[in-house]
Amino acid sequence: MTDDSAARVEAPSEEPRWHVAIGGEVYGPADREELAKWAAEGRLVPGSQVVPVGGDRWTPVHLAPGLKDLVLTPPPPPSPTAYAYPAARQPVAERRLSDCPHCAGPVTNIAPSYGFPWGFFQRALRPRFRCGQCGRAIAYDELSAAAQGEVSRALRRATIGWFSLVIGLILFIALCVIVPLASVR
Questions:
Q1: How far apart are CA 139 and CA 86, in angstroms?
Q2: CA dist 80 to 26, 38, 42, 83, Å?
Q3: Strands 25-30 and 18-22, how do they pair?
């Protein structure tokens, strides 16, 4: 062994070596030069944790002594499909009732829907039809026979529903007001 090689072996390295946690995996030990190379490649990002060899306290790489000046590139933003968004409430697509007699486009009921039960009754009792392609208002008589039958059935159901609602309210008022008054006498 020459004096040069003996001096290199005996002299302890002044530069600390680090273990690095990236994405749940631990890499290293690596010296500062190798960490700078990882940072330049984009593998070492803000939020990566480091611990010196023999140490037991993990710290963010940008706060570690001797590594604060490393230029860290943030990771690229994830694609929009990477996020799990809750399913947004989409407007319900109108069901095609018939073909437009003018352009053969889809004819739908465009009466406003305010939710059940009012919107259901509104759409059934006062339907309005429009072509989705040419935008023309379509009269009931211009609908196909199958669509007219479907609209008539919805009208009957809505009429029975409204009638039941009114009779139910009358009975409720009778039970809550008239019966207690009759028992007072």
A1: 40
A2: 28, 26, 21, 6
A3: antiparallel
What digits encode the pLDDT tens for the residues 73-119? 666 665 655 555 555 444 445 678 888 887 888 888 777 666 556 65
Q: Are residues 54 and 111 both part of a single domain?
A: no
CA-closest candidate to residue 32, choices 53, 58, 54: 53
Structural domain of 116: 98-184
Residue 155 lies in a domain: yes
Q: Report the Cα 36 to chain-centroid distance in Å.
A: 38
**pTM of the predicted structure, to 2 decimals:** 0.40
- Indicate left, alpha or beta for 104 from its phi (over 0: left) and psi (-120 to 50: alpha): left
Q: How many domains does the chain have?
A: 2
Taking CA atoms, 162 is separated from 46, 97, 116, 119, 125, in Å, by: 64, 24, 12, 12, 10
Q: What is the DSSP string of 30-42?
A: E-HHHHHHHHHHT
